[in-house]
Design a protein that fits this description.
Length: about 450
């Protein structure tokens, strides 16, 4: 079986999965009044399904030919996004439609980011302004409190004054961090630029600690360390960074009550304590309810749309969406979802390996590392492997800022892939003029012009 046949079968499998979920979402419409047995068909779900199927075909066949996107990455991304849309739809139809709208906007952002990566060779002339803009984005949320945290900026409230929509600036700064570190570590006088890269990363991390956004802080630190190691190849640099991160974590734990609470909940989520209302409850209520929902889902799951097991889990559409997936579809399907993330990570590393420019390679490494660490951290927190961080599950969790930033990261990978493909065609045209003529690629300096 050729690689093309395998990709084609994967596309068919993703389309069948999307169509099946779409049909289930359509048939679980609201019952007709007075006739509890007969159900109406949800035509909105049908339209969403048709749109998703069209996007899967577009990403697998049309966009690779027109723009040079990676068809495997695009197909797996569409699979995870389809899963996210229909899982959110099963929780709340309005949330599912909003997630679909975010997916559409994110797809446009992916293409735009890809075009930027293909055309911009360096951001060196804008380093100072980009750094100041990133600092401003991370400082502004400090003046707002949303869900007992300072990580979001409220942009919409309902008639009762409750916050209904927010923006998380640290999600946008993720992209800035990766691009800036890649540019600073890609050359141009290596040592002084590496120092500036460390200063910029340290500034972002400290501002996140001040905001008490510790989950995103973990992502920044891990991504920066992996990018520094990839750029230098020095274990001493990596160990120094790990030691510094460990010392910072120890100091933060000493003076931050939120982190102490998270660690205590992780160590014993079923410990009973007296709540503020005087009643007795579980110390790690979130984790405890999540673990019980995971156990109730079992190997095969309870079925799409069944909410009885996870409805007591707080934030089940955001932080604990993996619990919903396991509860409805079972552990076997959850392992398939994890396999999709792993293939994305391995494919991202392959894209970085093929890149002929150091700047592109480091951006691909940073994007892949961030997606991988974010997935590992949130799923590990949900199953109580380590303390819960509160980050989102890429492409699946509810959250506009997170969805758009993840799609932008995929745009970086697609852009690097397209540049690598173009460089390989030009290099082959230099040694095989017949190949260049058949592909319409000029050789020599004309190809670079």
């Amino acid at each position: 079986m050729t690689r093309g046949d395998m990709r084609q079968r994967l596309v068919i499998l993703v389309m069948v999965f999307t169509a099946a979920l779409g049909m289930l979402a359509m048939l679980r419409g609201a019952p007709i009044p007075g006739t509890p047995v007969v159900y109406t068909a949800d035509m909105t779900a049908l339209l969403v399904t048709a749109g998703m199927l069209g996007m899967i075909l577009l990403g697998a066949y049309a966009l690779p030919k027109r723009l040079g996107v990676d068809p495997l990455l695009m197909t797996l991304t569409n699979f995870l996004c389809a899963l996210g849309i229909f899982v959110q739809y099963s929780i709340n139809p309005n949330g599912g439609l909003f997630h679909a709208a975010l997916y559409a906007a994110g797809s446009v952002l992916t293409i735009l980011m890809m075009i930027v990566i293909r055309r911009v060779k360096t951001f060196r002339d804008w380093w100072l302004w980009i750094a100041l803009g990133a600092a401003a984005l991370l400082i502004i949320p400090r003046f707002y409190t949303v869900n007992n945290a300072h990580a979001h900026i409220p942009i919409q409230r309902n008639g009762e004054g409750l916050i209904t929509m927010t923006v998380q600036p640290s999600e946008a700064v993720k992209i800035v961090l990766i691009v800036m570190l890649a540019d600073m570590l890609s050359g141009h006088g290596w040592k002084p630029d590496a120092v500036w890269a460390a200063v910029f990363a340290g500034m972002c991390v400290l501002l996140l600690i001040v905001e008490d956004d510790l989950g995103t802080c973990v992502l920044y630190v891990a991504t920066a360390l992996l990018m520094f190691f990839a750029a230098t190849g020095s274990f001493s640099v990596l160990l120094t960074g790990v030691a510094g991160a460990g010392a910072t974590a120890a100091v933060t734990y000493r003076f931050t009550g939120k982190l102490k609470t998270r660690v205590a909940q992780w160590l014993n989520p079923f410990m009973r304590e007296q709540l503020d209302n005087g009643q007795i409850g579980l110390k790690g209520h979130q984790i405890a309810e999540s673990l019980m929902a995971l156990a109730a889902g079992g190997v095969h799951g309870l079925g799409y749309g069944i909410r009885d097991t996870f409805r007591y889990v707080p934030e089940y559409s955001n932080d604990f969406v993996f619990t919903v997936v396991c509860s409805q579809f079972g552990i076997v399907f959850a392992l398939a979802v994890l396999a999709a993330y792993m293939v994305i990570i391995f494919r991202g590393m392959r894209v970085a390996e093929r890149a002929r420019r150091r700047f592109h390679a480091l951006m691909a490494i940073g994007s892949t590392a961030l997606l991988g660490v974010q997935t590992f951290v949130i799923i590990g927190g949900v199953i109580n492997m380590f303390p819960l961080t509160g980050v989102t599950m890429p492409f699946v969790s509810q959250g506009g800022s997170s969805m758009l930033s993840c799609m932008a990261l995929m745009g970086i990978l697609h852009g690097v892939h397209a540049c690598a493909e173009q460089d390989e065609r030009e290099a082959r045209a230099l040694t095989d003029p017949d190949y260049g003529a058949s592909r319409g690629v000029s050789s020599g300096r004309e190809a670079r012009a």
